[in-house]
Amino acid sequence: MAGSCEISNIFSNYISAMYQPEEAQEAPLELLSHLGKEDNVALTAEATGEKPAWFSELPYFWSKAQVLEWISYHVEKNKYDASAINFSCCNMDGYTLCHCTQEQLGLIFGPLGDELYNRLHEIISVSDELTWIIDLLEKQDMSSQELFAGSNATELGNMYTKESLEEMKSTHPFCQGEFSYVSMSPDSSDISVSGTVTSHSPNSQDSGGSDLDLDPTEVKLIFDDGFADYKKGDVKHGKRKRGRPRKLTKDNRDCLETKKSKHSPRGTHLWEFIRDILLHPELNEGLMKWEDRREGVFKFLRSEAVAQLWGQKKKNSSMTYEKLSRAMRYYYKREILERVDGRRLVYKFGKNSSGWKEEDILN
DNA sequence: TATTTATTTCCTGCTT
DNA sequence: GAAGCAGGAAATAAAT
């Protein structure tokens, strides 16, 4: 497991990967020079060749200066005629920017509006995904500490300390939110919930956080049922109805939806979920590994654990590898995955998948 | 509101 | 015998 510092850099690295400003590219200082001293301060970093200030933060938390910096970066990148921009409308912080519709951005920025809208929402969706994975792995890690308190945690491969996680949360406002103690037994591929501690901060992201934001009723649901139980549970105690499980009752759903982010990304597809785990080996706790990185061949190391993570993401505690693998097999037809004959737990990304190649990530 | 998409669930049969 | 794979069939939620 990666140390907290490494993890805290993942967001900025990921965003860096998406937004690689050409080294040779000049900082577009002159574009914003009329906007006042305060605004220019934040640009000095870029002018000196460092990463701009907005690189390491979520758009929601950008200051006005960071917003302007980000806009100017795209103006420069797209060789856009800045005279067409209504700068009087650019005086907004990240939160406001994130709530602009595509049409609004189009009105302010003209043809560049669509590009800005798309880029902004790429960052938002990527960071939400990473937040989800990090949240989940934090929970696993913390539960291991709790579960094995008194034993030597390092034997279990834990490199986090509670303090480091707390530090990470305070460093990264988007990492704030609920802690729920989920344990992943070291010798099996099972994950089970062992307890829950909830911490809220006034600015916590649980009003706008990841898919894992569980409300108390849901946490209790997991608590009561337990992941370990599902295997022997509903399926064998009378047959479950076919098809996707019914949604929660309206009350529960309303409760969840009020907690759900206004900006939560559209549900990630299974193959994207798998891809994202593979792209962050430092986070995936040995769940999966690349067999052939160039060819996109990968292997499930802990198939049931991955299935349960997927189940957690989809709020479906009865997910199993068997079901997950059925969904994976449907991807063969769509050429999102290719068959790897004769090898168990091994799959390969197909031509209709994207975002997993090293060059894709760098570009 | 109807249709489509993307799963989810269950199942049988086969392979490792 | 257990685990995994293959794929049909049906059901469902969410998106279009």
UniProtKB/TrEMBL annotation:
Region described as Disordered: 191-213, 234-263
Polar residues bias: start-end ranges: 195-205
GO biological-process terms attached to the record: cell differentiation; inflammatory response
GO cellular component assignments: cytoplasm; nucleus
Biased composition (Basic and acidic residues): 248-259
Gene Ontology MF terms: DNA-binding transcription activator activity, RNA polymerase II-specific; sequence-specific double-stranded DNA binding
Subcellular location: Cytoplasm; Nucleus
Family recorded in the similarity comment: Belongs to the ETS family.
Assembly information from the UniProt record: Interacts with TBP. Interacts with CREBBP and EP300; these act as transcriptional coactivators of ELF3 and positively modulate its function. Interacts with XRCC5/KU86 and XRCC6/KU70; these inhibit the ability of ELF3 to bind DNA and negatively modulate its transcriptional activity. Associated with CLND7 and POU2F3. Interacts with ZNF768.
PANTHER family: ETS, ETS-RELATED TRANSCRIPTION FACTOR ELF-3
Protein's name according to its UniProt entry: ETS-related transcription factor Elf-3
Native source species: Pelusios castaneus
Lineage of source species: Eukaryota, Metazoa, Chordata, Craniata, Vertebrata
